[in-house]
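Exercise 7. Predict the structure of Nitrite reductase NAD(P)H small subunit from Paenibacillus segetis.
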Amino acid sequence: MSLSNEAFYPVGSLDQFMIQVGRVIELNGLQIAVFRTSDGNVFAIRNQSPHPKGGPLAEGIVSGHYLYDPLYDWKIDLETGNVQAPDNGRVQTYPVRLEDGQVWVATSEFLAV
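Solution. The predicted structure, encoded as tokens:
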């Protein structure tokens, strides 16, 4: 995916994202879960579990840069979207930019609905 095809959108001020608590935003018709970690980083992933039965991720537990799926307890790396062994799978991640206290999330043009 080329960065030149991505557009960043403002999704709220940093203080609107509680530490270690997911928040769902809708962007270009997609539900995206945004997480602010205890070290001040912000990550955005698709709000859909990679588990075969699916389910939301925003209510998962955050520990470090990992999210624990609220339904299946799969451990997901917030940076890469990769599910950790012994499970496997991947969640779509989205670039995040912090600028002047605002959180911006990017999606690719081809994802727009």
